[in-house]
Design a protein that fits this description.
Two copies of one chain form a homodimer.
Chain A (H helix, E strand, L loop, with lengths): L4 E8 L2 E8 L2 E5 L1 E3 L12 H6 L5 E3 L1 H6 L3 H6 L3 H5 L5 E3 L3 H7 L1 E5 L4 E4 L6 E4 L1 H11 L3 E3 L11 H22 L7 E6 L5 H14 L4 E3 L8 H11 L9 E3 L5 H9 L4 E3 L2 H7 L2 E4 L2 E4 L19 H4 L3 H9 L3 H27 L3 H14 L8
Parallel strand pairs in A: 4-14, 5-6, 10-11, 11-12, 12-13, 13-14
Antiparallel strand pairs in A: 1-2, 2-3, 7-8, 8-9, 15-16
C-alpha cells in the first residue's frame, strides 16, 4: 500500500499538472471531483461517473452524519463499499453545511451544536468529531473543521472565524494522528475577502505542515475577481509542492482561471444541480433546455461528444423531458455536465503538459463566446 | 418487411406461448410491456429496458398528445426515434386517461372534448383522431378509442359505454385503413363486471375481425376474482389464434393468473410507480425499502439475480436512498422491478413450452409465500 503523495509532472506559468497518489488510486490534476452528497452522485450510476474519467468523488460529512450516520456506514464497511465507489473519496468537514443548512446553531470554541434540517435531532460537531466521522466513513482525503463566514462581512468577524479555524486546524491535526497510514488531512485557508487575513491563515497552516491545502470560504457570493485575487494572494504562501484545493468552485470559467493560478482540485454541485434544472454546460456555453427554441430541434446537443447523453438524443427530446419533469431529463443533463467538466480538466492537463495552457484557455473561451451552435431552422 | 402476425408455439391448458411478429421485431408472449408514458420509461435508459428482455414498450396517447404533441413527434421522425426505442411500441387510445386525468370532459357520440390537466388547453379526441395520433406517433400496435367506466357501476351505464365503444370500434377500424401495412389495431372488450355484456362485446368485436383483442376496463378497483371471472367469460368468444391483451394489469399474481386463462400481453405502471416509492417486487414477495429493518442489512436484495440493481447494492444502501429521496433509489428499484416482471414472463414462456405452467405458478407462489429472505441478524 502506497501512501499519500503529490507529484507535479509539468508546469506552465503558475498552472501545474500532476498526480495525487492515494492507496485507492491516482488522482490526475487538475481534477474536478463530482459531488456525491449522500453517498450518490445524484442521478448517476457510479460506473458512469468512473467512465467519464473522474478519479475521485466528494462526500458531505454533514449529510452523511445525519443519514444514515457515520457509525452505521462504518458498520457497513465504509463509504466506498456503501456507495459502490472504489476510487479515492474526499470528504468535507461538515462545517460549511452546518452553517448553511442546520438550525439552532450554537458556535463555541469547542465546536458547533445544531439541529438536523431533516428531523430536528441534535448533533455536535467538534474538530475531533469531524475527523472521527471522516475516519469512520473511510475518507481518503479529509478536511479540518473550519468556520466559514458569508461575504461581504465585517473584517472583525472574518478575522475571528479565521483565527478559530486555525485553532481547529491544530486540534484536527492531532485528532487525525489516530487514523491509518495513507490518508491525508488538509488544512483550510480562511480570511474572507481580506488579503492579509488570507495570507496570515496560509502561513500559519503552512507552518503546521499539512499534506494538502484547501482554500475555503470563496464562491459564497463575491465577484469572480475577488475570488481570483484571494487565490493570488494566498498561493505564494502555500507550500508549492502540495496539492491546492479550491472548495466548492465553480463555473467552467472559474475552473480555468483558478487552474491558471495554481489550483489543482475542485468540487462543485453546479454540473449536477444545474443539470437537474435543465441547464447544460457545453463547448459552446450554457444551454437551457427549458427554452422553447429546442422544442423541434432534431439535432443532438453535441454530435462529436464522447458522452452518449450529448450525442444520442435530440435537443427536442431533452427539452420534452425537462418540460415534463421526467427523471431521465435530470439523468441525461447531469451526465452531459459531468462529462463536460471532466473534458475541461482533461484538456487543461494536456495543455499544461505541452506548455500551452494560455492558448487552451483562449480557445475554450472562444467556444463559449461563440454561443450555442446556430439555432435550428426547422 | 413482414406484416403483423401471431404464432402460438405451445399451449398448456388455456395458457399459450408464442410470438407476435411486427416489422420492428418479435414480441415473445406472454409479454409484459414496460410503460413509457411520456416517451420514457421513468428512471430508465432504453438500453437497460431492452437488456432486461422487454420486446415492446407502451406509450400513452393522452400524455403524448398534450406534450410534446403528436404532430411534433411525427415531425421529429416518430416516437421510436424520439424516445430512442427501436423495437415495437404499443399505444393506448388516450380514452382511459382522458377519463382519469383530464378536466371539463364532455362525452358525446362523436367523441370526447376535454381540458389538459397540465395547462387547461382544450382538445378533442374522437375514434378517428385517436387513430390519427397513434399513426403520427408511428405506433406498431394501436388501440381503438373506448369508453371505460369505473366499477362498481350501474348496469345501464356499463352497457351504454360498451355499446358506444363498439360503435367507436367500427369507426376506428375504418380510420385505421389509411395506415401503412404491418401495423395493427386492436379492438377493446368492455362490459364492466357483467359477464353477458362482456360476452356481447367480445362477439361483436370478433365479428369485426381485428388482428388482436384487448380486454379493457378491468383492474379499476374490482377484486381479483371478478377480474378473472370476466377474463374467463370473454375468452371463449375471442378468436383463439389472435393475441389477447389485458390492459393495465397488474400485480405479479394477476399476471400469473391471467396467463393461465389465455392472456398474452400485459402492461402496468406498478413496477415503475411502486419502484419510485421504494417497493420492490422479488421472488420472495414484496420488499418495502422504507422499512427500518433494512437500515443495517449489508446483503443485496437478491444475490442470484441477473439484475445489477438487485445484486450489487446492499439493502442498507437502497433503504438509505429511499429515505433520503435520492433519484438513484427510484432508478435502482424501478430497474429491479422491471427485471422481475420480465423474469416472471420469461419463466412463464418456458414453463408453458414444457407443459409445466401449473407447476411454475405453484413454485412462484411458494416463493412469494415464503416472504422475504430471513431478516438479517446484524
Amino acid at each position: 500500500m502506497t501512501g499519500f503523495s503529490f507529484a507535479i509532472a509539468a508546469r506552465d506559468g503558475a498552472a501545474r499538472t500532476g498526480v495525487v497518489s492515494t492507496p485507492r488510486g491516482p488522482i490526475r490534476t487538475p481534477a474536478f471531483m463530482p459531488v456525491g452528497t449522500q453517498a450518490t452522485v445524484k442521478g448517476m450510476y457510479m460506473d458512469q461517473v468512473k467512465a467519464l474519467g473522474a478519479d475521485v468523488i466528494l462526500g458531505n460529512t454533514y449529510h452523511l452524519m445525519l443519514r444514515p450516520g457515520a457509525e452505521r456506514i462504518a458498520k457497513l464497511g465504509g463509504l466506498h463499499r456503501f456507495g459502490g465507489w472504489t476510487g479515492p473519496i474526499l470528504t468535507d468537514s461538515g462545517g460549511f453545511q452546518v452553517m448553511s443548512l442546520a438550525k439552532l446553531r450554537k458556535l463555541t470554541e469547542q465546536g458547533v451544536t445544531f439541529s438536523s434540517h431533516v428531523d430536528g435531532s441534535r448533533f455536535e460537531l467538534t474538530p475531533e468529531r469531524s475527523v472521527e466521522i471522516q475516519g469512520l466513513l473511510g475518507a481518503d482525503i479529509q478536511m479540518q473543521l473550519d468556520e466559514c463566514v458569508a461575504l461581504p462581512n465585517e473584517r472583525a468577524a472574518i478575522d475571528k472565524a479565521m483565527q478559530l479555524s486555525l485553532r481547529w486546524a491544530e486540534r484536527s491535526k492531532r485528532a487525525f494522528e489516530a487514523q491509518p497510514e495513507g490518508r491525508a488531512l488538509f488544512g483550510i485557508v480562511q480570511g474572507g475577502d481580506q488579503p492579509d487575513l488570507r495570507i496570515a491563515s496560509a502561513r500559519a497552516l503552512a507552518a503546521m505542515d499539512f499534506p494538502g491545502y484547501s482554500i475555503g470560504g470563496l464562491a459564497v457570493g463575491e465577484p469572480q475577481e475577488v475570488m481570483l485575487a484571494m487565490i493570488e494572494a494566498v498561493m505564494p504562501h502555500l507550500p508549492e509542492e502540495k496539492p491546492h484545493y479550491l472548495m466548492g468552485v465553480g463555473t467552467p470559467d472559474d475552473l480555468l482561471a483558478a487552474v491558471a493560478r495554481g489550483v489543482d482540485m475542485f468540487d462543485c454541485v453546479m454540473p449536477t444541480r444545474n443539470g437537474r434544472h435543465g441547464q447544460a454546460f457545453t463547448r459552446f456555453g450554457k444551454v437551457n433546455f427549458r427554452n422553447a427554441r429546442h422544442a423541434e430541434d432534431p439535432r443532438p446537443l453535441d454530435e462529436t461528444s464522447s458522452c452518449p447523453a450529448a450525442r444520442d438524443y435530440s435537443r427536442a427530446y431533452l427539452h420534452h423531458l425537462v418540460r415534463t419533469e421526467e427523471m431521465l431529463g435530470s439523468m441525461l443533463i447531469t451526465w452531459i455536465n459531468l462529462a463536460y467538466y471532466q473534458e475541461l480538466m482533461a484538456g487543461a492537463r494536456e495543455a499544461i503538459a505541452r506548455g500551452a495552457y494560455a492558448d487552451y484557455m483562449a480557445a475554450v473561451r472562444e467556444g463559449w463566446a461563440r454561443g450555442d451552435i446556430a439555432p435550428w431552422q426547422g
